Amino acid sequence: MKLILRKRETVSRRAGIMVPLVSFIVSLAFGAILLAASGANPFATYGAMIAGALGSGYGLSEVLVKSIPLILTGLGVALAFRMRFWNIGAEGQLTLGAVAAAGAALFWTQGLPGWTVLPLAILAGCVAGALWAGIPAILKAFLNVDETLTTLMLNYVAVLYSEHLYYVAWRAEGYNSGTERITELAWLPRFFGRAHTGIFYALVLAVVLWLLFRFSRWGFELKIIGANPTAARYLGINIARNIVLTLLISGAISGLAGAVEVLGLARRLQQGISVGYGYTAIIIAWMAQLDPLAVVFVAFLMATLLVGGDQIQMRMRLPASVGVVLQGMLLIPMLAGNLFKEYALRLERSDREPAAQEEVA
Amino acid sequence: MVERSPVPVVQMRGITKRFPGVLANNHVDLDLYAGEVLALLGENGAGKTTLMNILVGLYRPDAGEIAVRGQKVTIHSPRDASELGIGMVHQNFMLVPTMTVAQNVILGMRDLPFVPDMVGIERRIREFSDRYNLAVDPRAYIWQLSVGEQQRVEILKLIFRGADILILDEPTAVLTPQEAQDLGRMLEVMQAEGKSMVFITHKMGEVMAFSDRVCVLRQGHVVAIQRTTETNARELARLMVGREVLFRLEKQPARLGNVTLALQNVHAANDKGLPALRGVSLEVRQGEILGIAGVAGNGQHELAEVVTGLRPITAGQVVINDHDLTNCTPFEVIRSGVSHIPADRMSMGTVGDMAVADNIAMKGYRLPPLSHRGLLNRRRILDFARALIQVFQIATPSPRTHVKFLSGGNIQKTILAREIDACRGLLVAAYPSRGLDVGATEAVRRRLLEQRDAGSAVLLISEDLDELLTVADRIAVLYEGRVMGILPTAEAKVETVGLLMAGADENAAARQTAREAFD
After folding, report:
1. Cβ distance B385 to B399 under 8 Å?
2. How many CB atoms lie within 10 A of CB B124?
3. With contact defined as beta carbons under 8 Å apart, do B217 and B40 qualify?
4. Residue A154 has what DSSP assignment?
């Protein structure tokens, strides 16, 4: 008997569901070893995580709160990755989106009719994110500048600029940091604890992107560019235009994530807007295989892990680092598990000759 | 031929290997003796390369045994094979372009000192070069070398490692006729030293010229093993294809129409920025096939790219269907009705990780009925693909199968289906039958003639003179980026075309041919 890895001819639907599921179970087993090694009861700890994240209204609402920026940035990143444009600048795009939304709500919509403030603030966030992603897109499309470096470095520029604003330029009187609270006209309504209506933007966008990827000419072209740029050029697809257009949208979605963080959650520009959602988004996009609907589920899972991780610190009195390590530990088998989507593991008896009875294709 | 030792150096027994949906080798038995050249003949997808990849340890057989020099062995990797003295030159070379010949030769060798004695190594490479007729400068960088020279480096790599069982996978596919003859001489020297060679090919002429024995594979089975002297090309072709092959195509007289493609004094540079086309002028009319002959690297590649908008021109004019398309984008060229069968079918012609149906739709997806207002109609795409799969006889398990799982011939048929369906006036075909087996080659040529008879203009670039003489109506010869002459096929003699390919001007070529005929 021997185990054989055999490449799958097509990715079966069953594998698409079973692989992540089994990976998740393996992840839990790995995490259990880690917990046991640090002296905690794995079952109790997992119980505490689940109870903490999903077992109470508060926990659940916090999971939703964290899901919103994770879904949005995950979608933005997945969109760029579809055409193999390595946009790792979601963090900066989110931050500038937050800055622009706050700026619009605080200053730039003064004197305009009240009902325009919220839409304009959201629009400002999207535009800021789009422009921030547009810079590396244009550099890549016309000068072939490597996008990993430019998108990454622009993150620092955006984050430091936002700090300048809430520590210095836009700081409210009497505070060490943070702007004035934005006008209520620009608030996104909350419906469940701190969970706000930004979640609907995220869900609608996920469905729209899924449909576009599947059924639009644009989605088809993105896939060709991502899979084989030489063929794309030969087929007459305008690669430069697609890079710029796609990245404007990708950036706008991450900018939207920043905007709804400010308008729905913080309601001012302050420290804590940039906490790494834009980087977690990269993991989410990969784990979701760049599928927008899967992004929603993976982002929700990640949010659960984040909230649950915080909870076990409190409930189980585990050091804070265990929660973080556990999160990482859970991810590795899930990422590694993707191998089995492309390859099937078969148990074969070596003495049998499987070839003999089948026909030649 | 050297007298055979009683025990074969390589014995393969009952080798079976399957890939998803394909049984590549089915109980293959093969013996290789010392001092012989064994031709492994078969159509694309017959399992020749798979069988040899098993021998060099790139694949593990699902069943079967291998013995080398009478000893049963399990070959896990090319390194194991190398230790047994077995080496293979693959169709795609595995060289590092930015390193020198000598560096490439020793790359990956284990038993070298930390600082290798490069001078000594270069000297040994020169010795091998002289002995085996493999001229190449050990200090040259790979990127400076022609494809033929790169192939010599690959062979030197194996000899340097002491291989005495050499496998050459379609070695002449990338060679000029002259280089192919050099290769033949190298085989003779090796053979005289008692080395064994397996020569994978699907060209009958090479089998007859180079080999002592020939093993014919068809659909993963061995259908015949014979001494080359005891068979002939016709019999081999029949064994290979499984039926009688027509070597001649029916060809109607050309019905010429308007000028579809006109190039006027076109200049263009190659990828390195050096002049590749120097004042090319030619015309192709509706209903004719203009063949482009020439030794590889004389501007054919650039010519195809210039016509299809993939390469900018530095001077001159490109007119297609009476529209000036000089330096237009590929999209504008496609929109004016130009189809292109590119030389590189894997990296340019198809997207391997996408479905056959998607690949077939990659030109038509922009227009109804396949899409409407920016949205694709997935059902119609699938129906469209199914219809073309049938018409072009593409052997695929399903329209949803990824193209990379198809054989070379079926990948080419996928491109043909897409391009011929989208063709509205001009078809540019670059090496359309290169690397294809007899059956697929026949299908490709027939399609080109059909396009011509349907009133399209066809620009056919080929390195196969027989193909040009069979299919083309006129033949233009490119040499160093210039058109040396354009001859009607009916009047073209192989010798004249050959002289033009070597750079002689048209009158001189005609005179010389006439003189030889007179003598």
Report:
1. yes
2. 17
3. yes
4. H
Q: Which domain holds residue B115?
A: 10-241
Return all residues near A202 (Cβ < 8 A) that are at least 6 apart.
A67, A68, A71, A72, A75, A296
State pTM to two decimals. 0.77
Helix pair angle (A147-164, A117-143), 10° resolution: 150
Chain centroid to CA B31: 27
pLDDT digit string (tens) for chain A, length 361 residues: 566 666 665 566 777 777 778 887 888 888 888 888 888 888 888 888 888 888 889 999 999 999 999 999 999 999 999 999 999 999 999 999 999 999 999 999 988 999 999 999 999 999 999 999 999 999 999 999 999 999 999 999 999 999 999 999 999 998 889 999 999 999 999 999 999 999 999 999 999 999 999 999 999 999 999 999 999 999 999 999 999 999 999 999 999 999 999 999 999 999 988 889 999 999 899 888 899 999 999 999 889 888 888 888 777 777 767 777 777 777 788 777 777 776 777 665 544 444 333 333 3
| Chain A residues with CB-CB distance to B332 below 8 A | 236
Q: Is residue B512 part of a domain?
A: no
How many residues make up chain A in this entry? 361
- Cβ B329–A236 below 8 Å, yes or no? yes
Is residue B438 situated within a structural domain?
Answer: yes
Considering B403, B422, B441, which residue would you say is the last residue of a domain? B422
Residues B444 and B300 in one domain: yes
Q: B215 and B166, same structural domain? A: yes
Q: Domain check: are B155 and B288 in the same one?
A: no
Assigned domain for B504 exists: no
User: For residue A211, what is the nearest residue in chain B, using CA coordinates?
Assistant: B375
Question: Which one of B217, B241, B265 terminates a domain?
Answer: B241
**B283 and B408 share one domain:** no
Residue B315 lies in a domain: yes
The span from the CA of B269 to the CA of B313, in Å, is: 7
Query: What is chain B's length?
Result: 519
Are residues B386 and B466 located together in one domain of the fold? Answer: no
* Chain B contact present for A9, CB below 8 A: yes
What CATH number is given to the structural domain containing B29?
3.40.50.300
CB B465 within 8 A of CB B497: yes
Is the domain of B46 the same as that of B139? yes
Domains contained in chain B, number = 3
**Nearest by Cα to A21 from A352, A341, A290, A317:** A341
Token digits of residue B123: 């000297």
Q: Using CB atoms, which residue from B347, B362, B401 is nearest to A10?
A: B401
The DSSP code for B2 is: P
B479 DSSP assignment: E
**Interface contact B349-A234, CB threshold 8 A:** yes
- Opening angle at CA A225, ends A222 and A231, nearest 5: 140
Q: Which two tokens stand for residue B442?
A: 């026949």
| Contact residues, B window 372-391, toward A, CB-based 8 Å cutoff | 374-376, 378
Question: Hey, what long-range contacts does A264-268 have (CB within 8 A, 24 or more apart)?
Answer: A264/A68, A264/A187, A264/A188, A264/A189, A264/A190, A264/A196, A264/A197, A264/A198, A265/A65, A265/A194, A265/A196, A265/A198, A266/A98, A267/A181, A267/A182, A267/A187, A268/A102, A268/A172, A268/A178, A268/A179, A268/A180, A268/A181, A268/A182
B84 and B215: one domain?
yes
Task: Dump strand ranges (E) for B337-469.
Answer: 338-341, 371-372, 375-376, 426-430, 457-461
Judging by DSSP bridges, how do beta strands B22-32 and A343-348 pair with one another?
Answer: unpaired
- B195 with B206, same domain: the answer is yes
* Triad B38, B44, B48: Cα angle to 5°: 35
